[in-house]
Give the backbone structure.
Amino acid sequence: MRKSLLQPLPKFTAAIGLALAAVNVQAADRDAGAKIYSAQCASCHGADAKSPTDPSYPILAGQYADYLAIALVKYQSGERRNAIMAALAKPLSRRDIQNISAYLQSLDGPLSHRR
């Protein structure tokens, strides 16, 4: 039986989507992300994003932007479950998520690839 030419299409489409997401993160407004982070995230994750108030809360400074963006979207959808994070992520726009993610990736931290 001959394979369909359309079989690789989902993988190709996913690759294009990831590439576009990476470009969008690069175009994000880090200053806007810093403002949102300070207002909504710093009280738990620390003002520097690397000294959380509870050891079970993750360090976010230097984390990959795409990982952070996916995590926030999954909190919004309920795919990732945490009542506090879901409530904080729910009102964020896609642009807010891109901005926060780009800001956190730009910070030096133990997760940063820039040491």
Notes: DSSP finds six helices and no strands in the chain. Residues 9-26 form the longest helix (18 residues). The radius of gyration is 16 Å.
